[in-house]
Amino acid sequence: MEDVNHQPTNAVASRIEENSAAFLGAVLDRLHTADALAHLYLPGQSDRTHVSLCSSLSTLISTVADRKNVDRVVLREAESLATDYRRFGMTPEFYLLFSSIIQEELRKLCTDLSFEEVFHAERAVEIVFRDMAETTRRLDLAGVPASTGATVAEVERRSRRFSVVRLVADRPLDYRPGQYMAVTADFLPNVWRFLCPSIPPNQWGQVEFHVQSDADSIATLLASTQPGDRWRIGNGLGNLSDNAIESGAELLLVGFATGLAPLRSIMLEIVNRPNPPRVHFFVGAEYPGELYELMGLWNFAAACPWLSVVPVVTHEIDEWWVQATEASRPPRGLHLVQVGSLADAVTSYGTWSDREVLIAGPAEKTEGVRDAMIARGTPPGSIRCLSF
């Protein structure tokens, strides 16, 4: 860790936030002028798998102001970003050029601020980008793949909005159950989306993703993929399940829509354990026909006495456009679907204070369930969320 002391740089952070569009435009114009291949390294406008440059710089500079240096935690986050961004083709040289241009544009933007404020902001940028360059160089030298090619093997439409896409990668994939991965396809140049594998990694490179086709136009294209199409898949990201599986603790899993996918991967990992812990799995959807994995989950529950599955839907009756399939229909004689709020359904069982709680799904759903559980008495430290 290197010092970047002693003056606060909040004024610089504020200036970036107030002029984010102009600052970003100036940096990108300089990049494209300095490097004709810059457009190959930078994400496309419709890509949503990268952080905002301006907000990240503002956060970095504000953090430096508070801590008087570039904290090791900040550098670890930068290294993680550099590891992930190798899938864009970013090189060590590109990071150094990027850093130099950002520092020059900072000086132009902050001509009326004190030399010390701007200098310490520049030093923070230099240290972080140099660390990202060194991380990229180390991984390149070690031969760590930036991403892996995969071929679509099967596409199964479970309802109008939800599809299951199965692929076989060119090599075993590097991820843990509960993580998410950046994916793209040959028909989506330089545009990636985060998806969660719904099965644990295996030696054959098989992977399965759940796609909600109306999430945006890119998700629509991914859901319409066909067998034989080529995708690229990044490495695993996130820490939803860290220690939860290894600890052997009893689990409460709460998933809404495709938030089911990472939790299903965790559940399948537990199946292979010699003494699985108790797992209570709440599966939420807007409509009964969008419980697109219900039949499969209930089949697992029938064979696994340690697993309980509780389906919850917002609306009791499907709209005409839902287009339900057999995958969402419970076995004959079982009519256990609850209607109402997923948060209410979960908290109606108590505090779950004896469980590790993992929640995944759209942000408004995960936050709603988390807040309701904490209000009911669940210890906040036992809850982890994956939101999208």
Walk me through this protein's architecture.
The protein is an alpha/beta fold and 388 residues long. 39% of the residues lie in helices and 18% in strands. The strands form 2 sheets. It has a 6-stranded antiparallel beta sheet, with helices on one face. Helix 10 links the parallel strand 8 and strand 9. Helix 2 crosses helix 6 and helix 4 packs across helix 7. The longest helix is centred in the first third of the chain and has 28 residues. The protein is globular, with a radius of gyration of 23 Å. The two termini are 32 Å apart.
Write a concise synopsis of the structure shown:
This protein is an alpha/beta fold and 388 residues long.
Largest sheet: 6 strands, antiparallel
Q: What's the tally of helices?
A: 12
- Report strand order across the widest sheet: 4-3-6-1-2-5
Order of helices and strands: HHHHHHHEEEEEHEEHEHEEHEHE
Class computed from helices, strands and strand pairing: alpha/beta
* Spans where pLDDT lies below 50 across 5 or more residues: 1-9
State which percent range the strand residues make up: 15-25%
Taking all Cα atoms into account, the compactness measure Rg is 23 Å
Q: What is the strand tally?
A: 12
Helix content range: 25-40%
Mean pLDDT: 90
C-alpha geometry: globular
Distance between the termini: 32 Å
Any key phrases for this structure?
six-stranded parallel β-sheet; six-stranded antiparallel β-sheet; globular; alpha/beta; 388 residues; disordered N terminus
